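Re: Re: ligand-bound prediction request (bumping)

Still looking for help on this. To restate: I need the protein modeled with 26W bound, output as structure tokens. Inputs repeated here so nobody has to scroll up.
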Amino acid sequence: MDEVGLTVPPDAGAVSAAELRERVGQHLVFSIGRGATAARLADWRLALSYAIRDRIVVPWFQTAERINAADRKRVYYLSMEFLIGRLLDDAVANLGLESAAREAMAGLGVDYDALVRDEPDAALGNGGLGRLAACFLDSMSAVGVAGLGYGIRYDHGLFRQSFEAGWQAEEAEDWLAQPHPWEFERPEASFPIGFGGSVGPGAGDAGAWHPAETVIAVAYDTPVPGWQGRWVNTLRLWSAKPTREFELQAFNRGDFLGAATPAVLAETISRVLYPDDSTPQGRELRLKQEYFFTAASIRDILQRFERRHGDLAALPDKVAIQLNDTHPAIAGPELIRLLVDERGLAFDAAFDIARGCLHYTNHTLLPEALERWPAELLGRVLPCHLEIVERIDARHARESAAAGRPSDDGTAILGDGEVRMGTLAFVAARRVNGVSALHTRLMQETVFGGLHALHPERIVNQTNGVTPRRWLHGCNPPLRALLQEAIGDGWVADLDRLEALVPLADDAAFRERFAAAKRANKVRLAPWLAEQAGIELAPETLLDVQIKRFHEYKRQLLNLLETVALWNAMRQAPEVDWTPRVKVFGGKAAPGYRMAKLIIKLINDVARTVNDDPAVRGRLQVAFPPNYNVSMAERLIPAADLSEQISTAGLEASGTGNMKLALNGALTVGTLDGANVEIRDRVGEENIFIFGLTAEEVARRRAEGYAPAACIAASPRLAEAVEQIASGRFSPDEPERFRAIVEDLRGHDRFLVCADFEAYWQRQRAIDAAWRDRAAWTRSAVLNVARCGWFSSDRAIRGYAKEIWNAETEF
Ligand code: 26W
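Reply:
Sorry for the wait, this slipped through. Here it is.
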């Protein structure tokens, strides 16, 4: 009996199928207001979701009480993106209720799997950065960090992708078109957020900001249950609301639009996710989004701290803030503003406290992806913050000069009329980290070279990870069952235990079972792939997948060129016993990224030609299912045999798909880039297919002046493929369609596709041969699973807690 006299379930776990069925029935009637006969699939899904949610709220309260009672240091993860996917099945798995839920729904005549598939993805992110944030939330709960995620509750997540005549088409995503059972609106947790206006003089160091417009940030909380429901953290997403819902006077004057305008303008701030994952558009609305959620979060953090602590100097001991890339980098100036303007601290004291709390993760070295806001724009939207940035830069310059650094070493925050958000984040942070060993080293040697020299202790590495709950236990039932039998299920919370599989790699019977699990996943995938992409997947076919956002540095074009060359080779040598392959491409291009969209069209045009060609029937097929997202990844990854990680070395900060695919028994073909290097280090040279120029060699080739035409001339099969594309072999209706791709390839080829082509081709032919020796292939696959436990996001979070946040873990 709790304080309001409610009988609440004892704990997250322990519920029988009968009890659960009872609860589902009650929710259908009393929460959704439907009878069983009238209920649609979505109603049953909501009813089950509420019944599962009931098992989470009390552990949620208890976690908060434990954190308060122990006055634990809190970790706040600020991210513009959380690429969550579906929540029902993940919550059921984390509570250990899968069999109870299946049985309960079966008892009500409803198919559990159909329910799971009925849920829309929460696609509040673009790609790697957003998905990493979601995996980190799961792991912070799994290891018992007092963590809280802050982000934006976009009305519309990442666009829905479809193909019109092979061209990418985008339509607004609408996840909130139906009730979202996993969130609780928190109207009491709301803050006014100002924009524009002017700054007047204030007391001492303080300035007095008079914003021109204000919106209200309202919190929506989603519980984040950890493994076995022992710990439940919170994801708090902010939604923008108007200060006044409705201009009645305007309405009475018949100016209906005028009456609604303030509300529409306010709500625009959290309306939609920007679909760019590399080149910032530099839009004012984007800056407002970044400030909106960051300012609301900082206010919420300070308010929660001050509820229990009086001395602001203790803030860094009780609060660690992680900035997920530069998107929330305004957090530094905002925290300093509140400490100086509203709490009366001196600037330097405020700066030290702020820096003591802040930590920044960099996820890309691509120059065009580093945010730089025009100082004019920042000064107009956030006049107070520009002043603070100028003071931070002045202080930094003094520090730099004192360290004997030349003043023009490029480490200034302000320059060329811009505010370099990466430099601001670095200067105002206690720790800065990269997301793989190679990436972190390149950060120190290139983009952050000057700052690293000034603060050699500040940059540390935390190689990315993925949650084994969603990306192995959840998405791969056949392999999960085999692991359960072979080594128990301790691996779910302690993925290093997969190491126990190493000896089984030499056990033929086990290998047989392992291959059968992969086969079962391919058989399960086949009908879906036929329906979505019009291809036939036979179980013995090598399933070769490249699934990730489209970007030239990820080199989907290199994969496509190899595919065309293979097609040619099969047609020219039909007598050869070619290894049958299905090439799967999956991924979206930012709507404004013309070259990426042209490559998507090329892939679809080549797919049509190859799939219609009787000469290679059953030997080569190309599939490109539209609208790649988290749920599609959960479908494809367990069935994959070969993982394409072929980026230009030095440009993929880490990659996380590479980890998910290796953990599900796919072998990797890849360059020594990002975390591929650490995967190679762990699985062993002989259990991975590495090819291509290293990061150093890429830098050298570029520095020496790289001539792609020479590479093309030196490779007849590459030349043939390029010529076919150039001459409209795959676009007879518009022969010039791919001129831009061919001209760039022959003229610039900034991502060294031509330089790596022959090495890639050779490696792929070696893979054809390796596939023939199934025992050896399966042995390597087992060793990949066994030796990739380190790529758990639990390990990564433990690293952050120990080496960056200085925060406790409960488990
Ligand atoms: C402002 C536009 C914008 C939006 C997002 C620029 C850059 C981004 C992200 C940083 C891009 C991203 O998702 N980077 C990926 O982050 C993953 C998680 O660390 C890495 O594994 C990938 O290698 C990296 O490309």
